[in-house]
């Protein structure tokens, strides 16, 4: 069976995609595609892949999880399914940890090594969704504040903008941990966000997939008016947020430029082959080394200290 691990990331329309999978489970099954989303993975299926306190030795928990997963995969194959999409962004890590550490998925390698072992009997393919860093961090911060995280200070935002870890580091960590026979697939949010059927078609190689629920938007980040009300409810000064009713962008223009440059560096590296670790996939198909870059993105970074830092 072709098992596909869609590991996130958060804030890349994963909830929309998982809703699409759940609503179309029966239709997809007729095409030989099975789906495991959070309704399944967080209901005990993956318990023990990451050790749980009070349940014994960590390796024993992992071995039990591996056996449990193998049994369920075998049952899916017995039902005539030939592909299985497992989608859960929490495999990659927790967004609250990203906010606390001001870094993208610092423990992605350790976590994915355990998931690679748990699914090792079926040698899964890994799919990662990425998003332009300024927008991803802005969305994560808005969600964090709405759920009790403090409003970031200026130094927090500087730390995020100056962080050396980008998607390339995350991809390298996952590739090292999984060490699969095929490079992981990387799918940009800017191409696949809000197009769940197109995303699934790119993952599975199948066309004419169900369109129902494919364009539904869910779990959108709260807007400024909502966030100000959250602060009022917590007894905090809503003036800590800017005026306006739309999306909250906490970064300065210079910080936005730095984060956008980091993303373009990531895309350049992916387009150039990603050292054989990953394959950038766009709507029209996979992009491999040697193809023309997007219009207006014919150079990588700047010929200055920032470029040298990113190369290092």
Explain the layout of strands and helices.
Layout: E1 2-6, H1 14-23, H2 25-30, E2 33-36, H3 38-45, H4 58-78, E3 83-87, H5 95-101, H6 108-118, E4 125-130, H7 133-146, H8 154-162, H9 167-178, E5 184-188, H10 189-192, H11 196-204, H12 224-233, H13 253-271, E6 278-282, E7 285-287, H14 305-311
Parallel strand pairs: 1-3, 1-4, 2-3, 4-5, 5-6
Antiparallel strand pairs: 6-7
Percent of residues in β-strands: 5-15%
Low-confidence stretches: 285-312
In the CATH hierarchy, the architecture is: 3-Layer(aba) Sandwich
Helix content range: 40-55%
Q: Give the end-to-end Cα distance, rounded to a whole number of Å.
A: 40 Å
* Mean pLDDT figure: 90
Index terms:
seven-stranded mixed β-sheet; Rossmann fold; 14 helices; alpha/beta; globular; disordered C terminus; 312 residues
Q: Would you write up a description of this structure?
A:
By secondary structure, the protein is an alpha/beta fold. The protein has a single domain, classed as 3-Layer(aba) Sandwich (Rossmann fold). The protein has 14 helices and seven strands. It has a seven-stranded mixed sheet, sandwiched between helices. The radius of gyration is 20 Å and the shape is globular. The chain starts with a strand and ends with a helix.
